[in-house]
Specification:
The protein is mainly α. 84% of the residues lie in helices and 0% in strands. The termini are far apart.
Length: 228
Amino acid sequence: MSKIKRFFDIVFSGSYDLILTGLKNTFIIALGGLVIGIIIGCIVATLKVAGGRNKIAKCISYIGDIYTGVFRGTPIVVQLLISHFVVFRTMTLDPVLESMLVFGLNSGAYVSEIMRGGILSVDIGQTEAGRTLGLSYTTTMIKVVIPQAVKNVVPTLGNELIALIKDTSVASFIGTIDLNSAFTAIAGLTLDYMVPYLCLALMYLIIVIIFTFIIRFVERRLRKSERR
């Protein structure tokens, strides 16, 4: 009990600001990374699906394959370190923004495969109908196919968001103040790691449960709109 009391004494004596900052940065990195990942993923998935249309499309599709292979084949920690100490070594970039960019690029590799599956799950007749109406291939994909594909992959995108939230715990490797680094700092003040890390695990669990309910709510709304 004395360890728990000491932990909360330190938290309420001012360290709660550090936790709130870490929580805010965790959300910024995860949500911002997912948005970037969805944008990149949609573009890459569209290019991959169109890979056989002509030589230029096929070449771009190969580049997309290399991109997904590199970012899916290397750990996010390594990507963060390369970004910080190699790519942006000579630049002064905010650690939160840098983390968000790296997580976005990493997420884009996974989302591209998710979206590719979603696009292929849409009836080919939808694409043919759009082309029959005189829409270009790009316009048909953006206005007809991709919106339907997103509906199909909402649960998987929700899982990607949850994975991003948990993966932000490694953002502290480049000096980002996230939940992990905030509780580690408090643990250093209390000279005890059990209570702070148990509280950290509980906080991640609560966040994941909240987002799980939100994702399920969105799924139900989408199913209702389809029935109508």
